[in-house]
Structure formats: structure tokens, C-alpha cells
Amino acid sequence: MGCCKGIKRNKQENKKSCPLCNTLGNNIHYLAVEMVVKEDIISEVTKEDYFVCINNSCDAVFYNESGNRIFLAQDINMGANFDEVTKQYGCKCNSDSKCGSCNNK
Fold it and tell me: Could you tell me which residue ranges the CopZ zinc binding domain spans (predicted)?
């Protein structure tokens, strides 16, 4: 049924501090990152979970768990529909996310 059926997670499990500003960022699927980074760097997106930095004053947009891959604002295709991409690929079944099947928010 819904993407959250049977999954119980602590909110903190789906968060990781940004390597640039130390703000806790929300978990996001790598496909969402692929959909919004500029075409010439798509090959740099690896098949792992990423996090979104929620600090508007930070230059980082996405980063991986180890913090060794950071995508900055200049790496993002500003023409991409970020809201649609996060609806499709952003659900990690915690209270800070929402997908087509979740009503967590």
C-alpha cells in the first residue's frame, strides 16, 4: 500500500549534518538529485542516498552521507521542477517528508 506501511523510523535516522554548515539536512533519493543537477555533472551522482541542506544561507544543496560529494547551488539546473522531483523521489517515510502515498505532514 503506502510507502510508509510497516516502517517505523526515528526522525533523526533520515537526517545528516551538512558538511559545510552543520545544519541537519533531510534525506533524499539519488534519483531526485540526478533530476535537478546540471547535465554535465549527472555522472557525478552516485547511487546512494543524499541529503538536502535546509539552511538557505549555505552554498550546499545536496550532499552524500560521507560528506565527500557536495552539490552546490551553481550545480543545480534552476529550470528543474524541484517540487515535482521531491514528490516523486523524496519520500523517506519520516514526518518531514511526503510522497503520493504518505500523509505524514
Answer: 15-76
Looking at this protein, which amino acid is placed at residue 8?
A: K
The answer to whether the beta carbons of residues 23 and 57 sit under 8 Å apart is no
**pLDDT, tens digit, 9 for 90 and up, residues 52-97:** 999 999 999 999 999 999 999 999 987 766 666 666 665 444 434 3
Distance, CA of 22 to CA of 24 (rounded, Å): 6
Taking the CB of residue 64, how many other CB atoms lie within 10 A of it?
A: 19
Is the model's pTM score more than 0.90?
no
Cα 42 from Cα 76, distance rounded (Å): 10
In 3D space, the residue among 100, 96, 103 whose CA is nearest the CA of residue 87 turns out to be: 100
Residues near 97 by beta carbon (within 8 Å), at least 6 away in sequence? 14, 26, 27, 90, 91, 104, 105
- The one-character DSSP state at 78 is T
